[in-house]
Amino acid sequence: MNSIPPRGAGTEAIRHMALHSARSAEPDPATDALHAIHAAGRGSRLSLPAGWLVVCAPMSGCLQLESDAGLWSLPATRMQVWRDTPLRIDCPSPGAWVGLAGPLRAWGRHLRPAPGQAAAPCIFPRQDDCPRTLRRLLVRLVRAARGYPAIEADPSLLAGALCASLLDQQRDLDEPLQRCSGRTLQRRQQTLLRLLRVRHLIEIHDDGRPDLAMLARSANYSPWHLMRMHREVFGQTPCEYASQLRLQRAWSLVRSTQLPICEITEALGFESQSSFCRAFKKSFRCTTTQARQVQADDASLAA
Predict the structure, then answer these.
(1) Which helix (H) or strand (E) holds 267?
(2) Is 150 a residue whose pLDDT tops 90?
(3) Boundaries of each HTH araC/xylS-type domain copy (predicted)?
């Protein structure tokens, strides 16, 4: 596998990086610049070091991401924010994606503390829907960093606008952040980062049966302390969150696929088909047959 260096080996605050089919790149961990990334083609791979923050969004196709937490997919229309631990981004099928990545100190130039706050705001790691405005901003930033003639905007200004857009996208975390323990904003941010790491592990291991001891180790908490903190911040324990996600997946599989119920039961880790059907009816107040019938009726009306 060939390795290509990022374009722009100077001291620019934002460098352009192009990544093509069957190529790999691994930025210098010691750099103090942000990298505006455009990758296209099957087999392209980007390996990012520890201590970096990255936001990436597929333009087409699906990405495969891997960290010490495990392996997961990022479909089109979604975006991933990741930070702190190493991350590998693969494009296993024909497609394209854009992103911005760099060490936290480089992002810090575009994140300013709010009036009356000693610490700068934090961009938290999570997978989320990618609004069209944010996707366009990423594309414009990549083109500006490349020196595209039709883009006259300063890449640094676009990076600041991207940070503001990401912070606005994560406004729903403001209340959980306030419920985190810690006397200072920085301490509360660290607590929320730990809990979001736990939630990410639950999300990518979709068997619905989280290992509480493993989750606690990932956050450097005891299992009891993790359960208490997660409940205080998010209103439910990690196991309750896993059960919620499992039922959401059950609803999606029943409504949007024709998989036999026994296969859905096995895929989601329920003990038996009867226990799955009871849980489904208790949560959604209808049987799996009724849910599929409603879906079929809706499709007929749409046609």
Answers:
(1) helix 261-267
(2) no
(3) 196-294
Q: How confident is the prediction for the chain on average, in pLDDT?
A: 88
User: Please, which residues bridge with residue 127 across strands?
Assistant: 80
The string of DSSP letters for 208-260 reads: S---HHHHHHHHT--HHHHHHHHHHHHSS-HHHHHHHHHHHHHHHHHHH----
| C-alpha separations of 35 from 48, 107, 155 in Å | 11, 11, 11
Out of 146-150, 189-193, 241-245, 247-251, pick the least confident: 146-150
Other C-beta atoms closer than 10 Å to the C-beta of 225 total 12
- Residue 40, CB-side half-sphere exposure with 13 Å CA sphere: 3
3-state helix, strand, coil in the chain (%, to 5): 45, 20, 35
Tell me the C-alpha distance between 249 and 156, whole Å. 40
Span 45-68, pLDDT tens digits? 999 999 999 999 999 999 999 999
pTM (2 decimals)? 0.85
Residue 229 near residue 168, CB atoms below 8 Å: no
pLDDT at 120: 80
- SS3 at position 172: helix
